[in-house]
Amino acid sequence: NKESSNSRGALIVLEGLDRCGKTSQSGRLYKYLDEQGHSVESWRFPDRNTGVGQMISSYLANKSQLDDHAIHLLFSANRWEKRSLMEEKLKSGTTLIVDRYSYSGVAFSSAKGLDIEWCKAPEIGLLAPDLVVYLDISPEKAAERGGYGDERYEQLEFQKKVAGSYLSLRDSSWKVIDATLSIEDVEKKLREVVLDRMMTCHKGKPMSQLWP
Ligand code: TMP
């Protein structure tokens, strides 16, 4: 609504374990911002609509097997193929709410035992988020939520390792929200941190690249 024509959008990333509520929260946040008259889009990774995304989808559904390094690079390539569009959108003033990003890439692959620095390398040069929100839930609690689906990583023992990887990736710039609060309370906290960061971006916070 009050965005001047030369102000940029914000790159907002939501991260967390499977079943933490990220997808519903990013949907609710998108709807709210859109209704408030902001220019906003809802994105997610993996983006299963591209050729690379279809390979990832088939891997996640256990319909194909891939070396751990190879699938890691596909997830990264899936972000690279969207990078220029992402930059264009942000520069033209559109805020992007992104469900998973490079942190998922590193957390899930390093949970399999891959070297963390090796995992981070292909992400170098992607756009750095203006805000990372971590929806915090224990793997046990997440598992209780209507159960996991049939996808490859949706298993308690593996999610415990992913939680550990996320913990080593987190830094003080991340906003951590207790994902066990009610949907409405999580939504309210999320709106606050996002609106605040959108404002700093409109005011000219420079864009940067991974890993800052
Ligand atoms: P989704 O359930 O959010 O669509 O994500 C599918 C799975 O892929 C989820 O278990 C997290 C995992 N993942 C990675 O392993 N690496 C990545 O880079 C991304 C974006 C997701």
Description:
By secondary structure, the chain is an alpha/beta fold. It has one domain: Rossmann fold (3-Layer(aba) Sandwich), CATH 3.40.50.300. The protein has eight helices and five strands, in the order βαβααβααβααβα. It has helices at 22-35, 51-60, 68-91, 102-111, 116-120, 139-144, 156-169, 183-202; strands at 11-15, 40-44, 95-99, 131-136, 175-178. The protein has a five-stranded parallel sheet with strand order 2-3-1-4-5, with helices on both faces. It is globular. The two termini are 31 Å apart. 36% of the residues are buried. Bound molecules: thymidine-5'-phosphate. The site of thymidine-5'-phosphate (TMP) has 10 residues, from helix 4. Residues 14-189 form the Thymidylate kinase-like domain. Keywords: ATP-binding, Kinase, Nucleotide biosynthesis, Nucleotide-binding, Transferase. Its EC number is 2.7.4.9. Pathway: Pyrimidine metabolism; dTTP biosynthesis. It is an enzyme of class 2 (transferase).
